[in-house]
Amino acid sequence: MVRQIRVPGAVLAAGLLLAAAGCSGPLGTGPDGKPPSTARTPAASPSADGGTPADPGKPGGGGEPAAGDALPGLVTAAVARTRLAALKVAPVGTMAGYSRDRFTHWAQQGNKCDTRETVLRRDGADVKQDGECKAVSGRWKSLYDGVLVTEAGKMDIDHMVPLAEGWRSGAAGWDAARRKAFANDLTLPQLLAVTAASNRSKGDQSPDLWQPPNKASWCQYGRAWTTVKSAYELTVTEPEKKMLTTMLDTCAS
Questions:
Q1: 253: in domain
Q2: 10: domain range?
Q3: pLDDT at position 49 over 90
Q4: Does 211 fall in a domain?
Q5: How many CB atoms lie within 10 A of CB 252?
Q6: What phi-psi label fits residue 111: left (phi over 0), alpha (psi between -120 and 50 degrees) or beta?
Q7: Residue 252 — pLDDT band, cuts 50, 70, 90?
Q8: Rounded distance, CA 224 to CA 139, Å?
């Protein structure tokens, strides 16, 4: 005997309504379940294995590097080459109006941890933090120069695409929320713990003007720079594009 299951009319009507709306999320959300926003956010960047990290470009994403990578959210060399070819080429923009204060950093990430301490924990080994989330011990290997460090105070958190470089290549026209996302991006390969010496040597220079002294890092550096510039729709100069191509050519595939 086949049992008949009665579905209340209200439930049936609600189900039909959701189906017609394309399986939208709760009230106030879009089809992807996220609240609508008028603020521009960077396009999702596939990870090295072809997946897409959640909420790219937003503080608190908490992305983790893939196996063999020092940075999260890196696309493959092949994808990086495609994205590099698609980037708009333009002359270096003006620094008029620039200030680091226009890029809010370091943002709070919860549990008393700001973005700096979050990256130190992510990029180190055996990292121990105090009650205020400050790293008090650990080990870090700096990608740019290959130096091993055991004191957190000797590490800087580098913006892969420096804030000033971002300003010159498109960020001058962003709103405050987008600049904050750019300065605290934990999902794309925009933040990395490196030695203070290598970070300060780099300054705000683009790849044609500064390259990591450790050439073994060039593949990741080129992939990371291209990933970030593509996601945030920033421009590149011709010399910058040429050097990025050279860096990507060091990748095994």
A1: no
A2: 1-36
A3: no
A4: yes
A5: 5
A6: left
A7: confident
A8: 23
